[in-house]
Write a structure and sequence with these properties.
The structure holds three protein chains of three kinds. Chain A has one domain (2-218). Chain A is 74% helix and 3% strand. Chain A has ten helices and two strands; from the N terminus they run H-H-H-H-E-E-H-H-H-H-H-H. In chain A, strands 1-2 form a two-stranded antiparallel sheet. The longest helix of chain A is centred in the N-terminal third of the chain and has 30 residues, at 58-87. In chain A, 55% of the residues are buried. Chain B is α/β, with parallel strands linked by helices. By secondary structure, chain C is mainly alpha-helical. In chain C, 80% of the residues lie in helices and 1% in strands. Chain C has 14 helices and two strands. Chain C has a two-stranded antiparallel ribbon. In chain C, helix 3 packs across helix 9. The longest helix of chain C is centred in the N-terminal third of the chain and has 27 residues, at 23-49. Chain C is globular, with a radius of gyration of 20 Å. The chains are: A mainly alpha, B alpha/beta, C mainly alpha. Chain A binds chain C through residues 32, 34, 80, 83-84, 92, 95-97, 99-101, 103-112, 114-115, 220-221, 223-224, 227-228, 231, 260, 262-263, 265-266, 269, 272-273, 276-277, 280, and chain C through 50, 52, 54, 97-98, 101-105, 107-109, 111-112, 115-116, 119-120, 122-123, 126-127, 226-227, 230, 233, 237, 267-278, 280-282, 285. The structure holds adenosine-5'-triphosphate (ATP) and magnesium ion.
């Protein structure tokens, strides 16, 4: 029981971390990124390569993979998203365009990973030693994953809530149309949000690779779950993403433990649907 | 049947804001009633609740002696309530004719084919858009879009017509045409609830006015009396000061 | 009368083609007809309403898998009926739950639906029936499958033609433009969307069911391959999802291109596919046909 709670928190912490990235991209940059989960998986593979080929521990590989995720997403925004943002007459058009473009991107990333790594399940063994916490046995890699997620997520929240830069981000999230009136460059802010979202995706990928098996095609599921967390938490809300991510992780772990591991995705969907029907604006979103 | 519309203790809340607060009034058949009030006083919200675009937070609305509270907008439209929108809502993928036709096709009579097209042409002529039915609405000017909306409302032969600042943005000559048009609609026996800021137009069309301020009705009576009410004057002046 | 005769002639020629074509040619024609039907059925709902559905393969897979499960126990025509009914029921449930919500929620949900159905089917097979993967032994040759698909395509087009003459088309386009305005004109927006989504999904289910015997061996990862959703969407968008013939116009060149790519670049197929798609989003936001039409209009405008 206690063991499941901890495992649920590990999973939930990872979801929350990844979803924070997506909420930055969707809530602030207003790009619905269907290739988000594939960025996560690409980072997981990068951590895998760094670990097996160079013997780099995931903690160190964060120093490489996270900036790479940032740079990649920065590039994608400048190259693909910015022209779409520019030409879109309204937010609806941008939403559809970005969904379609990132759907294409999903296949590109997946295709590249498939060429490089093939379609097999991949994992590596890092800190795979049991530790005893108050009677529950948990793998050390999971524990470090949880701590890592908490540190990274916490740093982001502090950044957004305590700095001028964070204030700009939040202003754009609340009203992209009036932000320019107070001298905020929306495109620049959006690009930054999108890139940081990519950096978070990359960090999430590294964290996931520490304790989970993954394949080239697992990206879709991560995108889905991150989207569900974002919508549950209310688009653009970091505390919402945190809470919703934890809930999702706990539910999945308990469903897997007590009902059937094959039904976790179904249970996720069920929560999502129930929520959409009961509270369309999300758990923490403002009711309209 | 005594009243076309009866609004009884209706309220609407948006989070902490009480946009419409316990409003009651009734409208007799054939009247043109003005619904006035400073910006943000809840006029559009009131129309939205009558037409079913918004649910009420409390109270009841009856149309032709039958409760319509909680009914979806399309059902209320089918019973004979038509409206225009403060910010014009057109269907830009469609032509002018099709924009109006949809309301004939899905309105009370569910017209289709030649009968429907005749009716559309007739109503386009009524609002001064005759012969222009094939134009894509995406190309129309703002004023013509407003005319289109009125034709779309009228083509369904409504019993009650809700106009939300339909005259706003017209120049004096157009305003006169608009006022005449509204009077002509009344002669057809249509009851009209008219939200308007242009006082001359209100005086020229409405025998009676309901004035709202901060969500509540502060005056209701013959137009001259309602507009001369000290509280109404204060509400408008206070609005100007702010 | 003339277009009617011309249509009959074209259908006749297409039906006759497999009698003279070799196996490869017939297979190509079969695949093309399958995608043309998928894209046309997809556009029937998503074109006018602009609700982008990424769930094509969920229904396609349901159809194919139903045939795999039932082909031994029921006569073939009945299997198709059951498949259609299952597709219809699933689409009604999904539609009821998601179509009342903003378009973007629908996109997200449809995006994951195939994965959900795939995992659920896998779970069911592993835990309840104890099998994963099934063989389909039906005495159907490629041309038989092709004729069925052709008939379904013709039926789908006929429905499309009929719809465009009836008031429902007006309602669908209105829903895509402005739901509030549509509602106030008397359109039952939710019911209209649901009906069309279910119709489109049922046709897509049937395509999967009819094509299933092409694979003799079927398992969830094969029939729920997300590339199918993707290709369908790309074809419809390229040709113009709002036009009756648009999806077919898009399906022909893209299907041939994809065939060529998968034959010559089997390993880089998905990369090229994704790249092409991004280019399409950039180059033709409203589809080629729509684009031609706007160009035509502009020319007319200049002439006046
Ligand atoms: N959908 C909504 N969500 C939240 N608040 C709303 C919503 N619609 C209206 N309001 C608020 O309710 C109040 C009344 O608005 P309403 O549009 O009814 O005013 P109005 O009398 O029509 O004003 P105007 O003359 O400017 O059109 C305003 O304070 C407005 O901000
Ligand atoms: Mg108003």
């Amino acid at each position: 029981m206690f063991e499941h709670l901890i495992n649920g928190l590990v999973l939930g912490g990872t979801y929350a971390l990844v979803a924070m990235g997506l909420t930055l991209q969707y809530g602030i940059a207003r790009i619905m990124n269907l290739s988000f989960g594939d960025t996560v998986i690409a980072a997981a593979f990068a951590a895998y390569v760094l670990f097996t080929a160079l013997g780099l521990s995931p903690l160190l590989s964060l120093l490489i993979v996270v900036p790479a995720g940032f740079a990649f997403s920065y590039g994608i925004f400048s190259l693909i998203m910015r022209p779409l943002v520019r030409r879109s007459a309204n937010s609806e058009a941008l939403e559809v365009d970005s969904i379609l473009a990132t759907f294409g991107l999903l296949f590109v990333i997946q295709g590249v990973l498939l060429v490089l790594f093939g379609g097999n399940f991949t994992s590596y063994s890092y800190l795979n030693v049991p530790v005893d916490i108050l009677g529950a046995v948990v793998a050390l890699n999971r524990l470090s994953a949880l701590i890592l997620a908490a540190v990274l997520g916490g740093a982001l929240v502090l950044l957004l809530m305590r700095t001028r830069w964070g204030l700009r981000m939040r202003a754009v999230a609340i009203s992209a149309s009036s932000a320019p009136l107070v001298g905020i460059n929306v495109i620049q802010t959006s690009r930054m949000a999108f890139a940081i979202g990519g950096a978070l995706a990359a960090s999430g990928g590294v964290v996931i690779s520490m304790y989970q098996t993954f394949t080239v095609t697992s990206g879709v599921v991560f995108t889905m779950k991150a989207l569900i967390v974002v919508i549950m938490g209310g688009k653009g809300s970091l505390p919402g993403a945190l809470a919703a991510g934890l809930i999702l992780g706990l539910v999945e772990t308990f469903v897997a433990a007590y009902i059937d591991p094959g039904l976790t995705l179904a249970s996720t969907y069920l929560i999502f649907l129930a929520l959409l029907l009961l509270r369309p604006s999300g758990l923490f979103g403002k009711a309209s | 049947m005594s009243e076309v519309l009866k609004v009884d203790g209706v309220s609407r809340r948006f989070g902490g804001l009480l946009a419409v607060n316990n409003v009651s009034f009734a409208i007799e058949p054939g009247q043109i009633v003005g619904l006035l009030g400073p910006n943000g006083s809840g006029k559009t919200t009131m129309l939205n609740m009558i037409s079913g675009a918004l649910k009420v937070s409390g109270g009841q609305i009856a149309f032709q002696d039958q409760l319509v509270t909680g009914l979806p907008a399309h059902k209320i439209a089918k019973r004979g309530v038509a409206r225009t929108f403060q910010l014009v809502r057109s269907l830009p993928s469609l032509t002018l004719t099709e924009n109006v036709l949809i309301s004939a096709a899905y309105g009370r009579e569910r017209l289709w084919g030649a009968a429907a097209l005749d009716k559309v042409a007739e109503n386009l002529a009524l609002v001064g858009l005759e012969g222009r039915g094939d134009e894509p609405v995406a190309d129309l000017t703002y004023i013509d879009l407003k005319r289109m909306e009125l034709a779309r409302a009228m083509v369904a032969d409504p019993k009650l017509l809700l106009l939300d600042e339909w005259l706003a943005g017209l120049n004096p000559a157009e305003l006169q045409i608009g006022v005449d048009l509204i009077r002509r609609l009344q002669q057809r026996g249509i009851t009209i609830l008219l939200v308007e800021h242009i006082m001359d137009a209100v005086r020229a069309t409405c025998a009676r006015c309901i004035v709202m301020s901060a969500g509540a009705v502060i005056a209701d009576g013959p137009t001259d009396q309602a507009l001369a009410d000290p509280e109404v004057i204060r509400a408008y002046l206070g609005d100007d000061d702010a | 009368m003339k277009p009617f005769l011309f249509g009959l002639l074209v259908i006749g020629l297409l039906a006759w083609a497999p009698l003279v074509l070799n196996d490869y040619g017939t297979g190509l024609l079969l695949g093309l007809t399958g995608y043309a039907t998928l894209a046309t059925a997809w556009a029937m709902f998503s074109g006018p309403t602009r609700y982008v559905s990424l769930a094509t393969v969920a229904f396609f897979g349901i159809g194919a898998y139903t045939v795999a499960v039932l082909s031994e126990t029921l006569p073939y025509p009945l299997v198709l009926v059951v498949a259609a009914l299952i597709g219809l029921s699933v689409s009604l449930v999904v539609g009821l739950a998601t179509l009342r919500l903003a378009g973007v929620y629908f996109v997200i949900f449809s995006f994951g639906l195939a994965e959900l159905v795939r995992q659920t089917v896998t779970w069911y097979e592993v835990n309840v029936t104890g099998t994963l993967g099934r063989y389909i032994f039906l005495p159907l040759e490629a041309r038989h499958i092709y004729w069925q698909l052709l008939a379904l395509l013709v039926l789908t087009l006929l429905i499309g033609i009929y719809m465009r003459k009836s008031r429902i088309w007006l309602a669908l386009v209105a829903v895509g433009d402005d739901e509030v305005a549509a509602r106030h004109a008397g359109v039952d927006v939710t019911r209209t969307k649901l009906a069309l989504f279910a119709l489109s999904a049922t046709i897509i289910t049937l395509v999967g069911a009819i094509q299933a015997p092409r694979w003799t061996y079927v398992e969830p990862t094969i029939v729920f391959n997300p590339t199918i959703s993707f290709l369908t969407l790309v074809m419809a968008l390229l040709g113009g999802a709002g036009k009756l013939w648009g999806p077919i116009v898009g399906a022909i060149p893209l299907f041939l291109l994809f065939e060529w790519l998968s034959a010559n670049f089997p390993n880089h197929y998905s990369i090229i596919l994704g790249g092409i798609f991004i280019l399409i989003v950039f180059a033709v936001p409203n589809g080629i046909l729509a684009r031609l039409e706007t160009l035509g209009q502009r020319r007319k405008g200049e002439a006046q």
